[in-house]
C-alpha cells in the first residue's frame, strides 16, 4: 500500500498504474585558472591546491613530456602522491578507444580509488581522452586539465565535452563530464610550432566573429605579433586575447552546458570541419579545418545577403595575417553535403547552421542546398 505521505510527495496516478517522478538539478562549478607563474614551478600553488594530497594518475602528452618532464616530476614529487604517469600521443589520429582504455587500465593497475584524480597535461587530444576515461573509471572520478596548446587553452579547457574518434567519425563517442578545474599557462605555448598557434587563433576568431567584436579587433591589431611570439609578448595583449576568448566561450556555454538546446553559436566553423579533418586522415589540423569551414559559412551568408561582403574580406585579411588557409583540395560539394547530412543528425535533424550577421553577432539558418554549397566554394576560390 502507498502511504499518504509517499503519494503526496512523489506518486501520481498514471494510466494503468502509478508514476514516480525523479526531479533534480545539475549543479556544475569549475574554475579556469590562468596562472602568471609557470604552472609547474615549486612556488606556484594552484595545482597543489587542486590536487590537495589526493592520489593521482598523470596523463601527459608525449611531446610535452620531452620538454617539461623534469619540472613535472619535481612538482608532483613535492605536492602529490603520483601512482603512475602515462605518456600518450597527442595526435588526432590516436584519439581513439585504445587511448581511453589505456588510461583506465593504468588507473586499475595502480589502484586509483574513488577519491583519486586524473591529471591530464596536454592539448585537446590528451584532455579529451583523459576526460572520457575519468567519466568512465569507477563511474566518474575527479580530473583536472592542464592545457598546453592554444586551442586547449581557449576552447577544450573551457567546456565539459570529452570525446574520441570512432568508426571513422571524429569525436563520435564521448561524454558531458565537467572537470574539477583547468590550468592555463601561456609559457607552454613557447615550444609550439607556429602552425599550432595559427590553429589556436582560428578558434579564437570563431568566438570573436559570433560573439565579441572587440576580441576580433584585438586579433586584427595584435594577431600577427602574438603569433610570432607564441603569445609571449606583448603580454597584455596576449592575456586579454586569451581571457576574452575564454569568457566568450563561457558566455555561450553556461546557459546550455549540456546542450539541451541544439542551436549553439560556438558551433560556428564546426559543420564541415570534422569531415575535412577525417577525410584528410587528420593531416589537416583542427584549427585549419575550422578556418576553412568559417569562410564557407560566411560565403553562404553573403549569398543569402545576411552579411555584407566586406565581412568576408575582413576575415580573409586576418587569415592572411595569421597564416590560416582559405581552402583545401578535398573540399567539394559532395564532401560538404555529406558533412552537412552528418551534422544534421547531431543537431536534431536541423542544420542549425551558424552564420555571422556582423562581426560580433550571428544567427542560424536552415535548409542549405547543394547549389549554395557550390556557390560558396566558388566564392571562396575566387578570392584566394
Question: What do you see in this structure?
Answer:
With about 375 residues, the chain is of the alpha/beta class. The chain folds into two domains: about 30-190, Rossmann fold, CATH 3.40.50.1970; about 195-250 and about 265-380, Dehydroquinate synthase-like, alpha domain, CATH 1.20.1090.10. Helices cover about 45% and strands about 20% of the residues. The protein is built from 14 helices and twelve strands. The protein has helices at about 5-10, 45-50, 60-80, 95-110, 125-135, 150-155, 195-210, 215-230, 235-255, 275-280, 285-305, 310-320, 335-345, 370-380, and strands at about 10-15, 15-20, 30-35, 55-60, 80-90, 115-120, 140-145, 160-165, 170-175, 180-185, 355-360, 360-365. A six-stranded parallel β-sheet has the order 3-10-7-6-4-5, sandwiched between helices. A two-stranded antiparallel sheet has the order 1-2. A two-stranded antiparallel sheet has the order 8-9. A hairpin with a 2-residue loop joins strand 1 (about 10-15) and strand 2. Helix 7 packs across helix 9 (about 235-255). The longest helix has 19 residues, at about 235-255. The radius of gyration is 22 Å and the shape is globular. The model has no long low-confidence stretch (mean pLDDT about 95).
